[in-house]
Design a protein that fits this description.
OB fold (Dihydrolipoamide Acetyltransferase, E2P), five-stranded mixed beta barrel, 1 helix
Length: 198
Amino acid sequence: MVFVKDGGVVAPGEPICVQEEFDPGENSVLDKSGVVASRILGKVFYDRARRRVDVKPLRRPEVIGINDQVLAHVKGIQDKIAIVSILSVNGRALKHPRTAVIIPRRGRGVKGEMKDLIGVGDLVVAQVVTSFMGVIGLSIWRPNLGVVLGVCSKCSGILTKSRGGLVCSRCGDKHKRKIVPYYGNLEQLTSMLEVRTG
């Protein structure tokens, strides 16, 4: 007996069919009474050739993996780390921003504090280097990583690139940051926040 038609939407735990008709496949499970039920919110697909039923998710989960390139907004800075909110992954905007930590550079001769490299309010391009127990660790230490758009720590004005470093467009204050080669390029920044459907 089939309870849900091919292509029908099901909720987690909702009965789909009985085992005599189809075996459980992807994202479906068999309960004690012999009924195949959904594990997730998704669409039902019957594979008649293999006699199994799959449930495909309605939305793909937002996964952040090692070596992914992210665009993040700096929320806070401590001596050796910075707390950021990830806005996009590999050029795909996240529906729900994720919190991460920019970790210090390892090795000899590494001096200075995080506040000398990035500032609160800055937008940074970073690479995911660790993910453990839900904590995402980011690096900005490669040449193509760093601040893509800086914010003045005194007046919150946008920092513009000049010969002597970065200068606030509002108050004229000078700042030091680890910047990307395309710093201030709004087209590049916009492409990192592209919203895609599907």
